[in-house]
Amino acid sequence: MNFGNSYPVWGAEEINRLIQAHLSLVDFWVDRMRTQVPAYLSRDEIASAARLGLVDAAHRFDPQKGVLFKTFAEQRIRGAVFDEVRRMDWASRTGREKYSRLSEAMGNLEKKLGRSPGEEEMAHEMGVSLDDYRKLLTEVSCLSFLSLEETIAGSDEGKTLMESLEDTQGKNPQELYENHELAEIVAECLERLPEKERLVVSLYYYEECTQKEIAEILELTEGRVSQLHSQALVRLKTRMKQVLGR
Question: C-alpha distances in angstroms, 175 versus 63, 169, 190?
């Protein structure tokens, strides 16, 4: 990771202070992302990538943009972890084919029904049993989460779906104005989610609950929460593509 493009307003002492003051972000995001990355990626490997992201954030942070360092650092930490996932090339061709098939079926049913399809309808569309469909959701959960880091088609500012799901606290008025239309589209897509999926997304991205905590709140297994989470992300990305005409 290149730290050469640091801003001159920060000296080495200030950079070190930022890093030390925000080390807790590393532990927080490592624990939060462990269920969203391949099992063979150890906690130490995730933490190492996350620390690099924090250091990179401290070097690149520009206070003149009016964004809180915490907000900026969290984006860089997540990005560093996903860069490590991509570097290890964990997503097999078979896995990507399964994800593409799932996304295509979701899009076709959305157009056919004029609403979000249920799990039984999705299973029927894909010619599999409900149990096999839910197993598929579990298998592609990592790919679903990773897809949040991809740039949204039609976003002039290179905004990702993950960033659109985040709270707007810490963003300056200019950013809020520029992203207003996109935020409205995301809000509309969220409203279309089935109730349980909407709850999972809300608890995970807005309340910052872990999957274990969400499972306790909704009285579901962690595995079931993972399936609902994965299905919600596929719905959101599919719907965003439709709305933005890409």
Answer: 14, 11, 21
